[in-house]
Here is the input.
Amino acid sequence: MSPSAESADFRPRVPQIPGRPLDVAWIHGSVSSKHNTDPDIQVHWYDEHSVILRQNMAIDYEAPFLYLLFGDARAVLLDTGATQSAGFFPLRTTIDDLMDEWLALHPRDDYELEVLHTHSHDDHVAGDGQLVGRPATTVVPASRAEAYDYLQLTADLDQLARLDLGVRVLDCIAGPGHDDAAVTFYDSLTGWLLTGDTVYPGRLYVRDWPAYVATLDRLVAFAETHPVSQVLGCHIEMTTTPGVDYPVRTVYQPDEAPLEMSVEQLRDVRRAAHEIGDRPGRYVYPDFVIQHLGTDSYG
Ligand SMILES: [Zn+2]
Ligand SMILES: [Zn+2]
Here is the structure.
């Protein structure tokens, strides 16, 4: 297949309407985890090159979201979930099936998979081991040193890096604060700003306050100069009632808020952080809660 024919898969499409809903009902746990009948991993094809996955809350209450984005030359999986065991959490077979499904429609030789992370916390990297050793797959360790080095993010955190999937290129934005190793990814094909645990509808735990505020400034500045359709994090902890979150370890969230947030809500998080200042505590806002963990947790 010629390069131009391959690239035709990625011809410009109708621009996304900013803030349109993802149009999906997420699995959200059940009264009894033992009797849960949902899939272990929910798969949502947002478009023919973009998949959002959610881990079942009955397997781990964190129920993180993962993102699989297909480019012309390779795909990237962002995060690997909260559970190591393939028996409980069949990430490898799910990804194999999705890669096969995409390749059946878009045949290519030597198609690769890169596994990267929004940050290094256990509930985002636990499934790495299932993908290590997979053919044509690079699993990049989530530590700050290794992840930043791979992406070519430097000590100048305001400098963006680019992750080239072939035609589809992601911008990588350094984002420490929640976690030292955090990275936000921007995908111009969907307009998604993938913020990991830095910004999502839930409890935003901040370990390094000055770094977090600088990251929010960076993300808002980015969103003001790039078309962002959705701000997508990795968890949902807010209910649909403003200012009310589900307690930690909740395994049934029938009234959870939507995953997607708007650029306006991203600005709200930044405004809130500046308003709070460097004072440890729990600060409740309608669409999120900021938990400033204090200097003891700086590391
Ligand atoms: Zn985290
Ligand atoms: Zn998390």
In short: The radius of gyration is 18 Å.
